[in-house]
Amino acid sequence: MSVDVTEIGSIPDAWTRRHLLGLEDLSREELNIVLDSAEMFRDATDDCTRKISVLAGHTCANLFFENSTRTRTSFSLAMRRLGGDTVDFASGSSSMSKGETVIDTAKNIEAMGISVVVCRHRTPGTPHLLANNLRCSVVNAGDGPHEHPTQGLLDILTIRQRRGTLEGLTVALVGDIQYSRTARSNIWGLKKLGAHVIVCGPATLVSPMWRELGVEVSHNLDEIIPRCDVLNLLRIQFERQSTRPFPSVREYAHLYAMNRQRMDRAKDGVLILAPGPINRGVEVTTDVADGPQSVILEQVTNGLAVRMAVLWLVCGASIREAE
Amino acid sequence: MSVDVTEIGSIPDAWTRRHLLGLEDLSREELNIVLDSAEMFRDATDDCTRKISVLAGHTCANLFFENSTRTRTSFSLAMRRLGGDTVDFASGSSSMSKGETVIDTAKNIEAMGISVVVCRHRTPGTPHLLANNLRCSVVNAGDGPHEHPTQGLLDILTIRQRRGTLEGLTVALVGDIQYSRTARSNIWGLKKLGAHVIVCGPATLVSPMWRELGVEVSHNLDEIIPRCDVLNLLRIQFERQSTRPFPSVREYAHLYAMNRQRMDRAKDGVLILAPGPINRGVEVTTDVADGPQSVILEQVTNGLAVRMAVLWLVCGASIREAE
Amino acid sequence: MSVDVTEIGSIPDAWTRRHLLGLEDLSREELNIVLDSAEMFRDATDDCTRKISVLAGHTCANLFFENSTRTRTSFSLAMRRLGGDTVDFASGSSSMSKGETVIDTAKNIEAMGISVVVCRHRTPGTPHLLANNLRCSVVNAGDGPHEHPTQGLLDILTIRQRRGTLEGLTVALVGDIQYSRTARSNIWGLKKLGAHVIVCGPATLVSPMWRELGVEVSHNLDEIIPRCDVLNLLRIQFERQSTRPFPSVREYAHLYAMNRQRMDRAKDGVLILAPGPINRGVEVTTDVADGPQSVILEQVTNGLAVRMAVLWLVCGASIREAE
């Protein structure tokens, strides 16, 4: 019931990174290595349901200073399906609240024989700080509003699986762009792979400054819909907002929810993505979320495949460097 | 140190259920398949201390919307002793508090390559809702006051191990019947296997309506004691009650605690069960809880055996269906 | 990627303990068995990064009534690197808050087929109570201010690795001695292995009563520094103190922080230990903590090795006894 390790082989020579900190740094070739590896793992493990022992003996530490069940679990399952082990260090746990620095916490974890630290922190650059101070690998699982590279990669992999290529596609990121690390990682990745990116949402959540990243800015979803091959509906993070950036949820949904009427005006074969957890009736109506164009659950399965690929690549680069 | 998988073989042809939602649905034959399988696993693994790799590569997700250390741990250990893996989704964790529906949460978990979801929720029917919406297996680990089938099965297995059969035995469920899922699951299982069931407790906790389930109703423990082969002392759930259904703990213990004096009036070989955690001096006195008639700790070990059997059966039925 | 079990062999005949409750009980020979075993595991597993399957099929339960990420994780990783499995029972979890006694909780855990219980509790003697009532092994992971034997052992192992022997060394324990289980375990272990021990700190944290344990008492770090081979800088536990035992943190640091000036007056090759998490600038300045004399991170790695050795020894003694 487990996959033969020899099917997998060693990591590509062109991959030399011990860390994955963001998609801004990656070349087009490196992006394709991760995506190709993820597809290989997805195929070799029957949609991520079988084990493959390429990281047996290795341990991944989830160092999450912000809560996350979903991303943390996805990384844990990915590591274990590679034959490795995981330990969790949750925010608010004892050692983190005892006045220790982030680097000291991470160095202590590393000294327990850890191969890779997966880090989420509300401060942008924390994973970079760790990468500069640890000998083990570091993967960014979200640093404030900066980057969330595996989310970007799983979104891109899902589009590539359905459409074959990103080249020439028009992808709209809709909704809460301002504080979204998912938006930033998507933009870097999508543009390098040849897609045209539109960011779309109310002016309070989408500033004209985004044009500096080489993307189109829109405040009118209805205007851009007929041009889009992909709509990635970012979550309105009610739990993070003290004041709402729009008058009411109903008003937001009226202007930006993806619903049947808007689907009718969209291209044939348009893909609906959402990073979840989704607010049904806010970013997307139920018929669209559960409809044939929705690839929301494929994103989740691809998340595992992407994380298997990333863990395998960064650990492999560490091992090769040590040899 | 692990058991040869070939000793176990495949699941019985008569078992076709991908889910275990309650004992009300099960036939007498199905009940016996679970109990026989549990005994097989208990024997094959030396009282559940050795591993057996029949579910290697499979992952079980514990989706507990209500707290439970004990049941969750028992399911986790059962899955891992079958060679499988587990992930926990605890109540109050981030994704569950972000306004997502239960079905969306479960579908997301399923999309991570999960074979079986073990669900506890305070709303009766939640596991049934999931079973109708997921392709993977679902096991009910307690849905409000409705059912807790593995608790019923482990109680019944413990009685069967000591007495050989349930046929003709008189089993009293004593105490907090009203809101007890354990009581309901015991009643369905015990009656199908031929036992006579008495529910006994103060009128505030035991309504005459229970007669509709075909059981005897009593408010007087002393009166029924001489007729009972088994006394299952349900926990008084102080932590769930805002107003007490009896004047004082002392008064409850006076009328319903199983103590030495009551043991002297009981049948020879009477069995004392309690689902735990027990309140010593409330439902049961220390000398009885730790005495030779008490099978309280055997219940815990049988809980593991029953959960190994259930996970093996429902996953096996899923695999067979997929083939 | 895993170690051949036959390299390890069986536990030494001279080790007969099923429990590790404290270093006060251990003979010099037993201390050396643990230290030698820890070195063997450290070497055999490449600084605790590889697996060795000597406890395959066994499960360790972490029963922590006090919070601890670090110690708990270290035990978990140690057990899993021995091929075993772990389950956590955290303080404040449901079963523990339902009025159950500690012994009942532990017996329930044992009945799930657990081989070893690792226990932390704020009441001194709790692990001893469990050891008297369980058939499985018990390891003390800290009982109030009493003992924390694996911390003592890892401190001693770290000194022995650097200096070859403890015999004739002068070791100072500096800081918060009064409520420190680490201090007590260190004292018992160090003295049996032939070291001279000084406890040093403000009079509010270091009473003259400590002389009864056969150690030197000092309130003046500067006076003792030139004589010390090892300085073990115990953590000032701000989070446990309602009133501070010294006027200000600055004053404490002025008198007791290990800094560059004090290092200049210390012996060549003095070792700086700290159990962590460290308060930089309080017990130790950054240049010293990160300097060449600091063995703080070696302590963490040795903690894993010591816990592998302890789990292997106590489980081995249980297995031998059962045969």
Describe this structure in words.
Three copies of one chain form a homotrimer. In chain A, 38% of the residues lie in helices and 15% in strands. Chain A has 323 residues and is an alpha/beta fold. The first copy, chain A, folds into two domains: 2-147 and 301-322, Aspartate/ornithine carbamoyltransferase (Rossmann fold), CATH 3.40.50; 149-297, Rossmann fold. In chain A, helix 5 packs across helix 11. The longest helix of chain A is centred in the last third of the chain and has 27 residues, at 296-322. The first copy, chain A, starts with a strand and ends with a helix. The model of chain A has no long low-confidence stretch (mean pLDDT 92). At the A-C interface, strand 4 and helix 3 of A face helix 2 and helix 11 of C.
Topology:
Three copies of one chain form a homotrimer.
Chain A: E1 2-3, H1 28-44, E2 51-52, E3 59-64, H2 70-81, E4 85-90, H3 102-110, E5 116-121, H4 126-133, E6 137-143, H5 149-163, E7 170-174, H6 181-192, E8 196-200, E9 216-218, H7 221-224, E10 230-233, H8 249-256, H9 260-265, E11 271-273, H10 286-289, H11 296-322
Parallel strand pairs in A: 1-2, 3-4, 3-5, 5-6, 7-8, 7-10, 8-9, 10-11
